[in-house]
Amino acid sequence: MATKTSTRTAARSGKAPGYRCAECGWTTAKWVGRCGECQAWGTVEEVGGVVARTTAAATVLEAARPIAEVDATDAAFLPTGVGELDRVLGGGLVPGAVILLAGEPGVGKSTLLLDVAAKVAGGGKDVLYVTGEESAAQVKLRAERIDAVAPRLFLASETDLSQALGHVEKVAPQLLVVDSVQTLSSPEVDGSAGGVSQVREVAASIIAAAKRRNMTTLLVGHVTKDGSIAGPRLLEHLVDVVCQFEGERHSRLRLLRAVKNRYGPTDEVGCFDLAETGIMSVADPSGLFVSRTKDPVSGTCITVTLEGRRPLLAEVQSLLAESATSQPRRATSGLDSSRVSMLLAVLQQRAGCLLHKDDTYVATVGGVRLSEPATDLAVALAVASAKTRTALPQRLIAFGEVGLAGEVRPVPGIGRRIQEAHRLGFTHAVVPASPNGPGEVPPGFRVKEVSHVAEALELLIPGAE
């Protein structure tokens, strides 16, 4: 409606719309701070009258070829030396590819890319690291701390786009790292660094240089307070790969996810350990989220969650205490509080586990965040174990989604979860009943299928009320 009104106003005044939203293309005759279509702030820019143009056909420099004659070796993967990053990217870096790595401040983006740059440079490639947030001396100090100094790694501290492109022309690197795309600006474009116009111009110029030189480029991107990548949405469409670097502030574990990947899967997850000496790949992160106790303890249950395609073992702990008030407290850490409250209601109404007079505390080990519904059964068993003060077997895992009727629903990847549990020494599993069964079960591994949460409680905790 706002678009029609602004268009009619422009028609009455005899002028074409002079302002346009950089995000959605909405036009208006006068400047406004907020787009009337997509509601984005600060994206409306003056563009003048809209003039229709046509482009004449130009002389073709290189004729189109049949796809069978195209040499695919030019786009072969180049391993970075960081196994978890190669896993997420699908095998490594592709020549000419532009990769955007986004994440919150302090999560370890610069440390990871400096480590990658040093390893690639150590393999005989020229690497240029352009930083707009730190001086070259500051980057050198961090490189020495994480042992990322290589003779063919070049540093440049620049915030001017033309100067950065000048360094690219002079060094002619095979790998370019820009930290970050929001700190560079072009003097030919109005607006401050990090603005919509500047980010669009910087990204377009760097991408054009990367494609022309067949140069792999890694861009660091900032995120807004709601977790989305700062700048125009067009930035994510222009690049070839978009990765999100995630991690809790109080945990050393970092997860790298591919949100967009033109050269590989988007359901892989890389795990890293951020320490004082740098950032290291964690090929087997399950041990970080399972406590080591000699004797069984009530109120604990091990589950297997899927992070992308990777099975990950995690431990759920629960503690119940008699409440001193008429409204018992419900506290969670690492789990969705609303889902835990739902499971407590299911346990009380569908399984006869009376919890209305107890303060309930449910948490995960190691600071891992479990959001998959497949962890429901483990949470239910941990709470019931704490209620009855009966410990579950130490080498048992449980997973499955629990519904409001108390039914245990099947979850994807049952066989993959069982194989991971068997690899780590577990011998028993409680899984949802499935028409196709649990799949191939390792020798000596016992699986119990349940269709209702009460079945699991009767099987494991005979004394449950």
Question: Gist?
Answer:
InterPro entries: AAA+_ATPase, DNA_repair_RadA, P-loop_NTPase, RecA_ATP-bd, Ribosomal_Su5_D2-typ_SF, Ribsml_uS5_D2-typ_fold_subgr, Rubredoxin_2. The chain has 11 helices and 21 strands. With 465 residues, the chain is α/β, with parallel strands linked by helices.
Description:
Residues 74-223 form the RecA family profile domain. Keywords: ATP-binding, DNA damage, DNA repair, DNA-binding, Hydrolase, Metal-binding, Nucleotide-binding, Stress response, Zinc, Zinc-finger. GO terms for molecular function: ATP binding; ATP-dependent DNA damage sensor activity; damaged DNA binding; hydrolase activity; zinc ion binding. Pfam families: AAA_25, ChlI, Zn_ribbon_LapB. With 465 residues, the chain is an alpha/beta fold. 26% of the residues lie in helices and 24% in strands. It folds into 3 domains: 2-46, no CATH class; 77-283, Rossmann fold (3-Layer(aba) Sandwich), CATH 3.40.50.300; 288-460, 2-Layer Sandwich (Ribosomal Protein S5, domain 2). The chain is built from 11 helices and 21 strands. The longest helix has 18 residues, at 196-213. It is elongated. Mean pLDDT is 87; it is low at 1-14.
